[in-house]
Amino acid sequence: MLTIDQLSLQLPLYTSWWKRDWATCLDEFSLWVSAGEVHAVVGASGAGKSLLAYAIMGLLPTPAYLNGQLYYQGKPLNASHQRQLRGRELALIPQSLSALDPLVRTQRQVAWAAQRAGHSSAHARHASQQALDHYQLDARAQQAYAHELSGGMARRVLTAMAHVSQAKLVIADEPSVGLDPHQRQRVLDALRELADQGKSVILITHDLRHALPIADRVTIMRDGKLVETAPVCAFQGSGASLTNAYSQALWLALPDNAFATTGMSRRQQEANVA
Ligand SMILES: Nc1ncnc2c1ncn2[C@@H]1O[C@H](COP(=O)(O)OP(=O)(O)OP(=O)(O)O)[C@@H](O)[C@H]1O
Ligand code: NI
């Protein structure tokens, strides 16, 4: 469905007002995701996860140097192709809540997303109503403007918009931040459901715990680089089937695995990460 081949990204870094350097934000990063799969991309803050999502969607800031290749359904994914597919076949649930239009009420915002995806206006209304109900956005939230929504509500609106887009590839960038455990479960379950319907989902999160219950494979990312891609079953026990010490340490650092079977102390685990 989607292949990312050796993608490198450099963005400007202003060390002072007259001096511009280039910072490498993605460094020969590769990943593929197939239909029916939830592929989690996990990494610490600043690892480059959101930039990876923007690179796939064609939403990178300018100027930017991008090298490497993206392929969607076997064909190179270039800028015009991305423009054409965005909001239709490719959907992003963005990390930033400012992606919502401040001048449009929730209900209309979701209905527009459905129309953009090619639904007739009657069907768009119906599909968006279903999505709003599914994500438990009540009548008041439906009539609210973005600034009147809580962070968790706004995130559910963005998720509902991706849901009605009928996209074949959904990229969810930290979709569960700010949600209570019940709402988080609903959003994560909905992503799993999309994959079970044959779509591809890239779930971006800094929290391995949220990824493991729904992912098929997990890619660990650090400083713009691929650390390891592993099937979800590798994250068990002492993490011995993980090939990289950083992935193992991330796994062992989860609260349920603290001081896990290896007998490693937390300090040793942290030393492993460093
Ligand atoms: N527009 C930009 N211009 C220059 N550098 C940027 C820009 N956006 C992000 N970066 C830098 O690129 C790196 C990766 O940023 P990115 O937002 O992709 O991280 P992330 O993994 O999504 O982090 P988080 O979990 O905090 O959202 C960071 O060092 C960040 O400072
Ligand atoms: Ni991010």
UniProtKB/TrEMBL annotation:
<keyword id="KW-0547">Nucleotide-binding</keyword>
<dbReference type="GO" id="GO:0016887">
    <property type="term" value="F:ATP hydrolysis activity"/>
</dbReference>
<keyword id="KW-0406">Ion transport</keyword>
<keyword id="KW-1003">Cell membrane</keyword>
<keyword id="KW-1278">Translocase</keyword>
<keyword id="KW-0813">Transport</keyword>
<dbReference type="Pfam" id="PF00005">
    <property type="entry name" value="ABC_tran"/>
</dbReference>
<dbReference type="GO" id="GO:0005524">
    <property type="term" value="F:ATP binding"/>
</dbReference>
<dbReference type="InterPro" id="IPR003593">
    <property type="entry name" value="AAA+_ATPase"/>
</dbReference>
<dbReference type="InterPro" id="IPR027417">
    <property type="entry name" value="P-loop_NTPase"/>
</dbReference>
<dbReference type="GO" id="GO:0015413">
    <property type="term" value="F:ABC-type nickel transporter activity"/>
</dbReference>
<comment type="similarity">
    <text>Belongs to the ABC transporter superfamily.</text>
</comment>
<keyword id="KW-0472">Membrane</keyword>
<keyword id="KW-0067">ATP-binding</keyword>
<dbReference type="InterPro" id="IPR003439">
    <property type="entry name" value="ABC_transporter-like_ATP-bd"/>
</dbReference>
<dbReference type="GO" id="GO:0005886">
    <property type="term" value="C:plasma membrane"/>
</dbReference>
<dbReference type="InterPro" id="IPR050388">
    <property type="entry name" value="ABC_Ni/Peptide_Import"/>
</dbReference>
<protein>
    <recommendedName>
        <fullName>Nickel import system ATP-binding protein NikD</fullName>
        <ecNumber>7.2.2.11</ecNumber>
    </recommendedName>
</protein>
<comment type="subunit">
    <text>The complex is composed of two ATP-binding proteins (NikD and NikE), two transmembrane proteins (NikB and NikC) and a solute-binding protein (NikA).</text>
</comment>
<feature type="domain" description="ABC transporter">
    <location>
        <begin position="11"/>
        <end position="248"/>
    </location>
</feature>
